[in-house]
Amino acid sequence: MNKYSPTKNMINPIMKFLLLTLSLLAAIPVFSQVADSVVVRDTRNVQEPPEYFRNIVHFDFKLRDVIGVPRPAGSFTQGSGMMTFAPWGDSTGNNVHQLNFNNDGIYYRQGAQGSGAWQAWRKVLTSQGIQVIYGHLNLNYDDTPLSFTTDKSTSWQYIAYNSGGTRKAWVGMDTDNNFNITKENGGIIVLKGAGVGIGTASIGSCALAVEGTIGARKVKVTAGPWPDFVFEENYPLPSLAELSTYLKTNKHLPGIPSAAEVKNDGLDLGDMNAKLLQKVEELSLYIIQQNEKLEKITKELEILKSKIK
Comparing C-alpha atoms, which of 262, 275, 259, 188 is closest to residue 223? Predict the structure, then answer.
C-alpha cells in the first residue's frame, strides 16, 4: 500500500489520537492530588497555524466558523472544545493533530509543522444519525464481520450507496423480511465472475440455476436460425412413407430429442421452439400436398361422372 494512502494517513492517526485522548482523560484522576482540572483557554476567535504548537497538548474553546469546522444544515451551535496534540517541535516528529468536540460530533484534522495550513476537517463520530468514515474500512473477523441488529419491527436494515446526496442503490432487509438488491434511478445490476443459484448451490455450468418454478409475464429467448428454410423449393421434405418408417423405428419425430435425451440433458427452449415450428411448417407442406392430391382426385371423379351420364 502506498504510504500516502488515505487509510494510513487518515485512519491510523485518528485511532492513535483517540487512544491518546482516552489515555489522558483516564490519567486525570491519578494526578488529582496535584490538579483537579484541566484549563481550557478561551481562544474562540483565533485560528493558530500548526507551527504555533510545539511539544504540547492544548485545550481550547473555539468558535466553529473561525476554525472551519463544518456545521450541518440547521445546526446553530457555534461553540466547541478543541484538543491539540503537538508531539514534536518541527516536521521531523510527526504532524500536529487536533480533535474538535461539538454538539454534532467529533471532528479531526492534522497539519505539518512549517506548512502554515491545516488539512480539511474529517468527521470521526457523529452525535446521531449517519457515521462517516473517510478512507478504507477493513472488517476482519471469522464468521460475521458485519451485522445489523434492531429491536423495531418497522426498521429497515440495509447498506445504501449514495452519490451527490442521492441514493443510487441499496442492499438489505425490508420490514416484510424480504432481502432486496435495488438499483434506483436507472442503470442495471451486473453480476460478474460467478454463477447464480436460487434455492440451490448446484448450478453446474449454468449462469443461473433455479430450484423451483419461475413466474414471468413475458420471456424473450434469442434463438438461432428460424426455420423458414422449410418453404424453400429445394427443401428435402421426407415422404409420408419415410416419416412413417422413422416413427416406427425411433418413436419420436426426426430432429426432435427423445424422452431419454430430454430427461438427461434438459431442454433448450429457444432451440426446441425453432424445431417445433419446423415440424409445424413441414406439417403444413404435407397438408398442402394432400390437398393437391385430393383436388386432383376430385376433378378426375367429376370427369368420370360426366362420362357415365
Answer: 275
